Automatic annotation (TrEMBL):
Assigned protein family: Belongs to the glycosyl hydrolase 17 family.
Enzyme class: hydrolase
Gene Ontology CC annotations of this record: cell surface; extracellular region; fungal-type cell wall; plasma membrane; side of membrane
Catalytic function, reaction form: Hydrolysis of (1->3)-beta-D-glucosidic linkages in (1->3)-beta-D-glucans
Molecular functions per Gene Ontology: glucan endo-1,3-beta-D-glucosidase activity
Keyword Zinc: no
Keyword annotations: Carbohydrate metabolism, Cell membrane, Cell wall, Cell wall biogenesis/degradation, Glycoprotein, GPI-anchor, Hydrolase, Lipoprotein, Membrane, Polysaccharide degradation, Secreted, Signal
Compositional bias of kind Low complexity: 320-341, 350-378, 404-435
Signal peptide positions on this chain: 1-18
Organism of this sequence: Orbilia brochopaga
Localization (cell): Cell membrane; Secreted, Cell wall
Spans through the membrane: none
Official protein name in the record: Probable glucan endo-1,3-beta-glucosidase eglC
Pfam families cross-referenced by the UniProt entry: Glyco_hydro_17
Length: 457
């Protein structure tokens, strides 16, 4: 009997971890500033499930903090809202505000476990220790005044603290990761973090990759290249913790914000991810109530979708790397040059890869909505993803100046804004990075060759 129950338990765990969760990122504060409370989270979680054409599949939430602002360490009210709406949770611990805040984050989580028990812990699918701290700590992040980050050794130490704190709780086996930009993941100096995590969270924004050709037509290639270099550099499961395209905002090199291109990005990238990779889109709503300068929300201030979310007429562009394309049989190569190194958000000089091959365009296999929203993901092995910013408490030393609001507020942390980093070759200079870069270049050549062959046929 015991043997049987152990086996069943193992199967249950396996099936949970293999699930390709789908949801949005939820900051701890509204775009207009105030800290979110229970009714705000409840309304958003309900809204996500009711989005027209999505069959209720957006039922997971990535949070950036465990702390309800403005308290010191009370559990964030999103937990109760998640319990009431059966929303799964990718938890986040804000790590760029120092040890005291991390200690409070852990305290808030332990309080939640004690207060809600399994009603809460059964919903937790992962936990990210940190969000873009390494990007903010990088040359590019500093040049871009992205706010205070953290050193890799510090993040690794926090991961260690979290594992210890959870060791005797129902969350002792929760997969722990860290969320950052691909430029951080290919930077060999951040190895301590890669070694410490169970999964890798990838935040990718072709819109912000302004040092490379980044029109909407280039976006699929940029997205998948970021995914591939991250997977190759870390060797761990990659979870898509943030990606999206703004409905409004200024031009970033060739990228133009707008509902039309946001729709294209959703159809080509979103519809290729949903159900096939663990994905938390950025984001449900940020016109709350007034749209920020760069607005990523899929719904407007009246909670109405800006574009068609059904994937019905979409032509998803899967990963051009055969192995990483979970579903789709037609390997389409997405067209366009992909950048691999660049400034991401901005401002780092990156090399301009003039040698970057560019591939022809390609079409990809259309996938139906059922594929997009329900397929269990053919291969679950590559799907990690994850989190974003908390906002919260206002107790802290606030030192940050970052933009949006996802971080816990007291910490000064930033809110959730997407980092604009992604581009860079950030890793330049490091042998390991160069290896990654050249590997990418090689793969692009191979992809191009395939594309050419395909067209010749
Ligand atoms: C690589 O990572 C280290 C540690 O996070 C950081 O100090 C450094 O600036 C990064 N390198 C680049 C080029 O950003
Ligand atoms: C890349 O960074 C450099 C240096 O900061 C900046 O001058 C340039 O405009 C950036 N390029 C893009 C596309 O943002
Ligand atoms: C790349 O470099 C070439 C030659 O140096 C230059 O003409 C081109 O404008 C650069 N492209 C970008 C995107 O910087
Ligand atoms: C994809 O899934 C199939 C079936 O489970 C498995 O045989 C194959 O090895 C997987 N491929 C990858 C790359 O994980
Ligand atoms: C980074 O800085 C550049 C110029 O300094 C700016 O144009 C860009 O918007 C910044 N990116 C982000 C994400 O803030
Ligand atoms: C490159 O990697 C080496 C070893 O991993 C590290 O010591 C060095 O600081 C890194 N350089 C940069 C610029 O990140
Ligand atoms: C995970 C993944 O798809 N990695 C691929 C990235 O690109 C290189 C070069 O083509 C491949 O060798 C990797 O398999």
């Amino acid at each position: 009997m015991l043997g049987k129950s152990v086996v069943l338990a193992a199967l249950a765990v396996a099936s949970v971890s293999a699930e390709n969760y789908l949801g949005f990122n939820y900051g701890a504060s509204k775009a207009s500033g105030p800290v979110k409370v229970y009714t705000d989270f409840k309304e958003e979680f309900d809204l996500a499930r009711k989005l027209a054409g999505t069959q209720g599949r957006f039922n997971s939430a990535r949070l950036y903090t465990n702390i309800q602002g403005p308290s010191k360490d009370d559990p964030i009210s999103a937990f109760q809202a998640a319990i009431d709406t059966k929303t799964t949770l990718l938890l986040g611990i804000w790590c760029s505000a120092g040890q005291e805040i991390v200690t409070n984050e852990i305290s808030a989580l332990i309080k939640a476990i004690n207060q809600y028990g399994t009603k809460f812990t059964d919903l937790v699918v992962g936990l990210s220790v940190g969000s873009e701290d390494l990007y903010r700590n990088s040359v590019m992040g500093i040049e871009n005044k992205s706010g205070i980050g953290a050193q890799p050794s510090q993040i690794a130490e926090y991961i260690n603290q979290v594992r210890k704190a959870l060791a005797s709780t129902p969350l002792k086996s929760v997969p722990i990761g860290h969320v950052d930009t691909w430029t951080a993941w290919v930077n060999g100096t951040n190895k301590a973090v890669i070694d410490a995590v169970d999964w890798i969270g990838s935040d990718a924004y072709p819109y912000f990759q302004s040092t490379m050709p980044n029109s909407i037509e280039d976006a699929p290639k940029l997205f998948w290249e970021a995914y591939n270099v991250t997977a190759a550099a870390t060797g761990k499961e990659v979870w898509i913790t943030e990606t999206g395209w703004p409905v409004q905002g200024k031009d970033m090199n060739l990228a133009k914000a707008g509902a039309k291109d946001a729709q294209t990005y959703w159809n080509e990238i979103g519809c290729a991810l949903f159900g096939n990779y663990k994905t938390w889109w950025y984001m449900l709503r940020d016109a709350d109530p007034t749209p920020p300068e760069t607005e990523f929300g899929v719904v407007d201030a009246n909670l109405k979708p800006y574009y068609d979310l059904s994937c019905k007429n979409a032509k998803p562009v899967p990963s051009p790397v055969a192995n990483s394309t979970p579903s789709s049989s037609s390997a389409a190569s997405s067209g366009k040059p992909s950048p691999t190194g660049t400034n991401s958000s901005g401002n780092t000089p990156s090399k301009n890869a003039s040698s970057r091959p560019n591939s022809g365009s390609s079409t990809s296999a259309p996938s139906s909505i059922s594929t997009a929203y329900s397929s269990p993901g053919s291969n679950t092995s590559r799907t990690p993803n994850s989190n974003d910013a908390p906002s919260g408490p206002s107790n802290s030393p606030g030192t940050y100046s970052v933009e949006p609001s996802s971080a816990p507020s007291g910490t000064g942390a930033a809110a959730a804004k997407p980092a604009q980093t992604t581009g860079a070759e950030g890793a330049s200079g490091n042998a390991s990075n160069s290896a990654v870069s050249s590997g990418v270049a090689m793969s692009l050549v191979a992809i191009n060759a395939v594309a050419v062959a395909f067209f010749l046929l």
